[in-house]
Design a protein that fits this description.
The complex is a heterodimer of chains A (624) and B (87). With 624 residues, chain A is mainly alpha-helical. Chain A has a two-stranded antiparallel ribbon with strand order 1-2. The longest helix of chain A is centred in the first third of the chain and has 53 residues. Chain B is mainly alpha-helical and 87 residues long. Helix content of chain B is 75%, strand content 0%. Chain B contains 3 helices and no strands. In chain B, helix 1 packs antiparallel against helix 2 and helix 2 packs across helix 3. The longest helix of chain B is centred in the middle third of the chain and has 30 residues. The C terminus of chain B is likely disordered. Classes of the chains: A mainly alpha (624), B mainly alpha (87).
Chain lengths: 624, 87
């Protein structure tokens, strides 16, 4: 039974039309590779802030934050704030001036002017590493980044495709085409991917960013009614608190939740450091998928302002995406019911059939379906819950026809924002850091533009391929956090040293990146969460260390990778020959020309950052 | 900036707001539709919110666009101009 009525589909179609329209309207503006890969470097701060928010709310984040709300309750709000706000403020205040470089030519799209400015204005993070260090670091990072971006976008596509199938979004289209069940899933993955491909090919990063801004507002517009209606249904503010409390009691296996940190003693400090520094920094200070939006800003000041504006909005984002998950657990679990009523002498049996997996779940969170089609159970005989379905099921339960269309549009929007971020960043990195560095150093701008377009096509196809692979190997979903530990955590360490320590050298950075990834691999091989089997969950070498949960394992792996990378880079730097200082102009924070400070201290970015930090702390104190 | 994105954003939200409000008005009396939302005509109310939001954003966007074209007409048509120079 399709869940979408005509009005819902109409809203979805209108949304899809506007998404494509952004691509078509920018088509004529794309005349060079700079327009395609960097949106002409002409984006105002507020727009790149919104695009950054949109890119950061991909489907894995929206589903994952709802899942965390369902699993860990209100404390997850605090963890998401800790994992984003400080790092975003840091990126805006100290990192962007280095990454953005100086940019005297704002048009920057003719081949001649690009050559002049490339040395000081990197187009991508690998290119920055190339300018700061050397070619091998640049290419290594470009390859690692590409693999990570494509792999994680593929998994996100698969996860959301499954949700679309469960919500019967594309059933009407699929029935029209007479597709088998597997075809419905493929269609649910192919349609959004094709839409993204179309608008990115047409309008490049500009179209992706215009759409990410649009997508962010659609996500908020689609999920806010769920938050309001959900709170109303479970009894408002006090109902939420009671639900969260009951939830804590019901799930209290000590130490297994990040929210239970206070019961973990010394572990808490590690956890705070891990989330705040490594996870937050690894995402907001190193992930090119997010930073490309700030790097496309029109000048240094705008590029600094954009993460800070984004942080100010981000303070409220967890409320919108986490609370639906909490509501999902607090609502009653559906059961198969038979209501018998007597109508003018005729007896009616109203039977509502609920699938066994949903019945075995908690609240609206269903159990995972095992290979035998029955609800999956864990070792203790409790149902193994499929938390990613928390947010979608709440949408379905609470939104009436009409708003449901907007809710599904929100899910589609976050999926496309995430995939577009991966596709554009892959295209830029492939063109600048793989093609131009290895194959054709003197390629004309026209050639670069066409390579960037082909790379976009290839990127989206690879993402679709990764999604199909994820379909075959279901546990790839769990590997997502690990990829982060392998790629982003070491890169964050290297980038920190590159930007703030003049002494750091190229050989050291190369060694640091590799050592970090190897350390992550070793740690993952030696550690195994309690009650888990060796394999993708860890411990495939020999389970020696036992972290308290999967999340703790991933965090520890990321911290180990970060620390090892930091240590190796620092040590090797001291052993190798430093680059002469005059070559580092504009590439290290202490050698970046500082803009004159504003006389009015209330207008300074630093003041804004402190205000945002205080607001974030205050909001989290209210809620937790 | 190529054009002010608030224009398309405002148009989208105005359109969706109008549809939701209209749909909400026409289904007001239908208790079945709003059983899920506890009898609240959520379409109508949220539709109105989005409509107002859309109109505000659209107005802001049009003003900014007008200012942009006035102060810097080259910024808007720069791509077309450049193409003409190329040929």
């Amino acid at each position: 039974m399709p869940t979408l009525a005509a009005t819902d589909s109409l809203i979805l179609l209108i949304y899809a039309f506007f998404v494509l329209a952004a691509g078509f309207s920018l088509k004529t503006a794309i005349t060079g590779s700079g327009d395609f890969m960097q949106a002409g470097r002409a984006i105002p701060a507020w727009l790149s802030a919104m695009a950054m928010l949109g890119a950061s709310l991909g489907s894995e984040e929206v589903l994952g934050m709802g899942a965390a709300g369902a699993r860990y309750g209100l404390p997850s709000l605090g963890w998401f704030a800790l994992g984003s706000i400080p790092a975003m403020l840091f990126a805006g205040l100290y990192l962007m001036p280095v990454l953005y470089g100086s940019n005297s030519d704002t048009a920057g799209s003719t081949a001649a002017s690009q050559d002049k400015t490339t040395r000081v204005a990197p187009r991508s993070i690998p290119e920055y590493l190339g300018l700061r260090f050397d070619r091998k670091t640049r290419v290594l990072n470009a390859l690692l980044f590409s693999a990570m971006a494509l792999f994680s976008a593929g998994i996100a596509l698969y996860a959301m495709g499954r949700v679309f199938v469960a919500l019967h979004v594309f059933d009407r289209v699929a029935r029209g085409l007479n597709l088998p069940p597997i075809g419905v899933l493929l269609l649910a993955m192919a349609l959004p991917a094709a839409l993204v491909l179309a608008y990115v090919l047409l309008g490049g990063l500009g179209a992706a960013m215009y759409n990410q801004a649009l997508q962010f507002s659609i996500v908020v517009a689609g999920l806010l009614p769920v938050v309001f209606l959900g709170l109303k249904r479970i009894g408002g503010w006090s109902g939420l608190k009671t639900a969260a409390l009951a939830h804590d009691l019901g799930q209290a296996s000590p130490g297994s939740l990040p929210g239970g940190a206070h019961s973990m003693g010394a572990g808490a400090i590690v956890l705070v450091l891990g989330v705040g520094l490594v996870l937050g920094g690894g995402t907001w200070c190193t992930d090119f998928r997010l930073l490309q939006t700030a790097m496309a800003a029109k000048d240094v000041q705008s590029s600094r302002r954009s993460p800070i504006i984004a942080a100010a909005v981000r303070v409220f984002v967890p409320l919108v995406v986490v609370i639906p998950g909490l509501v999902a657990v607090a609502l009653p679990t559906p059961h198969t019911t038979i209501v018998i009523h007597n109508d003018h002498g005729a007896i009616y049996h109203d039977i509502t059939v609920v699938p066994p997996a949903a019945e075995a779940g908690t609240g609206l969170v269903p159990a995972k379906t095992g290979a035998d089609g029955k609800p999956a159970m864990d070792a203790d005989g409790k149902a193994d819950l499929d938390y990613t379905m928390a947010t979608p099921n709440v949408l379905l339960e609470l939104l009436p026809t009409g708003l449901l269309g907007l809710g599904v549009a929100a899910l589609l929007a976050c999926l496309m924002a995430g995939i577009a971020a991966s596709a554009t960043s892959f295209s830029t990195v492939f063109t600048c850091d793989i093609f131009q560095t290895l194959a054709a150093r003197n390629a004309s701008d026209k050639r670069l533009l066409s390579v960037a377009r082909w790379a976009t096509l290839g990127g989206v196809l690879l993402i679709f391929g990764a999604a199909c692979a994820a379909m075959r190997f279901d546990n790839m979903l769990e590997a997502l956090m690990l990829v982060f530990a392998f790629v982003n955590a070491p890169l964050f360490a290297v980038l920190l040293l590159a930007a703030f320590w003049k002494r750091a050298t190229g050989h050291a950075a190369f060694a640091g990146l590799i050592a970090g990834a190897v350390a992550a691999l070793l740690h993952h091989g030696l550690a195994l969460p309690r009650d888990a089997r060796p394999g993708i969950d860890g411990g495939w070498i020999a389970p020696l260390i036992h972290p308290s949960s999967e999340i703790a394992l991933c965090l520890e792996t990321a911290i180990v990778a970060f620390l090892v990378s930091l240590l190796i880079t620092a040590t090797v730097s001291l052993l190798t020959k430093a680059r002469p200082e005059d070559e580092l102009k504009g590439l290290v924070y202490s050698m970046v020309p500082r803009p004159p400070r504003r006389a009015n201290r209330w207008g300074r970015l630093e003041t804004m950052a402190v205000a945002i930090l205080i607001a974030a702390i205050a909001i989290n104190l209210i809620f937790i | 900036m190529f054009y002010d994105p608030r224009i398309s954003m405002g148009m989208l939200f105005t359109l969706i707001g109008t549809i939701l409000t209209g749909f909400g008005l026409s289904t007001r009396a239908d208790a079945d539709v709003y059983a899920k939302s506890m009898g609240i005509d959520a379409n109508l109310w949220w539709g109105l919110v989005l409509l107002v939001f859309g109109i505000i954003v659209l107005t802001m966007g049009r003003r900014a666009q007008a200012r942009l074209e006035k102060t810097n007409p080259a910024a808007i048509v720069k791509s077309e101009k450049r193409r003409r120079v190329d040929h």
